[in-house]
Amino acid sequence: MPNHSTPWNAIFASQGLVFVEPHEDMPQLAEQISQGNAHTLLDLGCGSGRHVLYFGERGFDMYGIDSAPAGLAITRQRLEEAGLTAHLVQSDIFDALPFPDAFFDAILSVQVIHHARLAQIAALIDEMARILKVGGHIFVTVPQLQNQGTQFAQIEPGTYIPLDGIEAGLPHHYFTPEELRTLFKAFSILDIHLDRHQHYCLTAVKHSAPTAEVSR
Known about the structure:
This protein is of the alpha/beta class. The protein has helices at about 5-15, 25-35, 50-55, 70-80, 120-130, 175-185; strands at about 40-45, 60-65, 85-90, 105-110, 130-145, 150-155, 160, 170-175, 190-195, 200-205. It has a domain at about 20-110 and about 120-145 and about 175-205: Rossmann fold, CATH 3.40.50. The strands form 2 sheets. A 7-stranded mixed β-sheet has the order 3-2-1-4-5-10-9, with helices on both faces. Helix 1 crosses helix 4. The termini are far apart. This is Class I SAM-dependent methyltransferase.
């Protein structure tokens, strides 16, 4: 298993706080999951903590997992400065997730799960389904294939490795909406849309039976 922390740990160690502002869909997500009485929330690939703090400030029992110790150190410092607490775990998210079955009310992951080969991503999504309660929400953002301004080598259909830049050597999988629907078949998809960065945003619920997708 590759060490997914290597590029991003170096980025956090050299640049400090990265991605300060919460994703644009966070207010809507907070309102949506609050209506379902969600309390326990996981930020999968929490980095330097922007969403751990955002939801912690709104009263959620926050968990964050990331492979980069430098990012988690920044998150801890920010939590302390804000007078907040959260449960932080250092682990590669593409290993088995260290949480019990049906533990979380909601899971979010912003621009993280695409950093692997497709088989690893599919296994991670199965793990997300395992640790999420029935009726729980997920929110995930992933990139689509477009001009990335760097040189790539294709290693499998839809998956590329940058040959230069800060993420050189780290796999990147680029998605289509159809692929997202297939990968998240264990969930009832509520919405797939593009954000202002042209990343796909998927919101879904874990149900025992599928429901119709609503587009916007």
